[in-house]
Amino acid sequence: MPPLETADEHCGQRAVPGEHEQPTGPAVTFTATAARADDCVFFFDFDGTLAPIQADPDAVQVAPDVLETITELTTRVRRVSLVSARPVDFLRSRFPGVPLTLHGLYGLESQYVPGETVTYPPALPYAGIVAQLAEQARRELPGAVLVEFKRLSVALHYRSAPELRDTVHAWAQAQADRHGLRAQEGRMVIELKPAVARDKGSVVAEEIEDFSCAWYFGDDLGDLAAFRALSERQSVDPDFLGVRVAVGNPETGAEVAAAADLHLPGPAAVPAFLRESFAVLPRFQAP
Ligand SMILES: O=P(O)(O)OC[C@H]1O[C@H](O[C@H]2O[C@H](CO)[C@@H](O)[C@H](O)[C@H]2O)[C@H](O)[C@@H](O)[C@@H]1O
């Protein structure tokens, strides 16, 4: 492995080393990645990572230049994957025609081939109770809480009324306990989802099995499991190159940054950061 860089000017930010003894300066890390670009996967979370946060989840679009840059990245490394709590159909709508692997609903659904979405079978029995709870949330929670029903999970948003946080969390936790669901916290949101052995960590652990290099860009608490998946692989395979990139924000930023190797100020900085890598990542010729 190349030596650790302690700091590196990048995108107007200083990239400061995190807890992992990896090549953490962007330049040296891109160079290490270029040496195995044909064996490298880049993972991206969606909201807060590739797209700026907004009050209305349906209105969210990717940050400027993200579509072009992610499309170009697919020609530079073996695989580019999105790992998100959004449904696959939503992710596909923001990246039409781009050859991405899409993992939606924390990996409960995946699209490896365009148009064919597969659901994680153990989650299916939860569809009825999740739909029921979405209706119940609309009836029982204050009107300022935005209920986002996503087929196998339901997100309860309180961004427009942060003072409702405790009320919403208490309601969600009570329903999770009563119905054997899992409550996942995020940025001004708590989500009820099936209590199955599938999250961003297990998705990433599975995908990296036949890769020797992976980058993960994330901003939220659900992304920490994915960071850990890279760390766990590195602990048993010291030659594995794993790079965790925290995309900053005032809500979950500190916790995510503490677990990361590199830090970017927000979604708008991601395309510029990736374009720098293109100088050393040659176009990948598929075998
Ligand atoms: O895994 P992700 O792609 O990061 O999805 C996490 C949640 O993202 C969305 O909510 C977040 O973004 C909204 C739009 O900017 C914002 O209003 C909200 O406060 C954020 O939590 C999405 O709506 C959720 O379903 C996802 O769980």
Structure explained in plain terms:
The structure is a single chain. 31% of the residues lie in helices and 23% in strands. It has nine helices and 14 strands. It has an eight-stranded mixed beta sheet with strand order 7-6-5-4-3-12-13-14, sandwiched between helices. The protein has a four-stranded antiparallel beta sheet with strand order 8-9-11-10, covered by helices on one side. Strands 1-2 form a two-stranded antiparallel sheet. The protein is globular and about 55 Å long. The N terminus is likely disordered. The site of the ligand O=P(O)(O)OC[C@H]1O[C@H](O[C@H]2O[C@H](CO)[C@@H](O)[C@H](O)[C@H]2O)[C@H](O)[C@@H](O)[C@@H]1O has 23 residues, from strand 9 and strand 11. This is Trehalose 6-phosphate phosphatase.
Name the descriptors.
binds ligand L263DTV3; single chain; disordered N terminus; alpha/beta; four-stranded antiparallel sheet; eight-stranded mixed sheet
